[in-house]
Write a structure and sequence with these properties.
Length: 179
């Protein structure tokens, strides 16, 4: 059982094929994701619904097959934070001074075809801007970055259709997805 009060959370390994062209970054997996050891496992998180519309990688597929579809479409998936302390699952509860970012210098060295970074929500972008960019050298510190609306059920103010229309901009940045 995971203690959700003042817990230290550790994220997952990245998902990426050697020819990844873009990376989608979240902040830190939520409690349901950690319990299931799967990215975006909460049933009301619409990440996999969006991936279903874009690359046929929805919840109807077994998790390993969804990850394979991401790789086939040159999409890498990871979180900005390797470890942090947080109460519950909300990004707003991440304690800033507890964040240990993932090693993006090593990731980009091993995935040199990544040309664009997408963020699943503002918190991921903020952590990346403050904790990762200062550790990168050119040209990595200048990779184009795009903030997409969070797929979290906590971001319910925006409709699914509005989120989807913004997420579809990913199709402009990889040669294997057609809108």
């Amino acid at each position: 059982m995971i203690n959700v009060q003042n817990s230290k959370f550790t994220g997952f390994d990245y998902i990426a094929g050697p020819d990844a062209q873009i990376i989608i970054l979240g902040s830190m997996p939520g409690i349901e994701s950690i319990k299931q050891q799967q990215y975006y496992a909460h049933p009301r998180n619409c990440f996999w619904n969006i991936m279903d519309e874009m690359i046929a990688a929805g919840r109807g597929l077994a998790y390993p097959k969804r990850l394979l579809k991401l790789k086939q479409h040159h999409i890498a998936l990871w979180d900005v934070a390797h470890q942090c302390e947080r109460n519950g699952s909300l990004d707003s509860n991440i304690k800033s001074n507890s964040i240990i970012p993932n090693d993006f210098s090593l990731f980009f060295a091993n995935h040199s075809r990544i040309k664009t970074v997408f963020f699943n929500g503002r918190k991921a972008a903020d952590i990346y801007q403050k904790r990762v960019i200062p550790t990168l050298t050119e040209p990595l510190s200048s990779l184009p970055c795009h903030i997409l609306p969070s797929t979290s059920p906590a971001h319910a103010a925006m409709s699914y259709q509005s989120k989807l229309s913004q997420w579809l901009q990913i199709t402009d940045f990889t040669d294997t997805i057609t809108p």
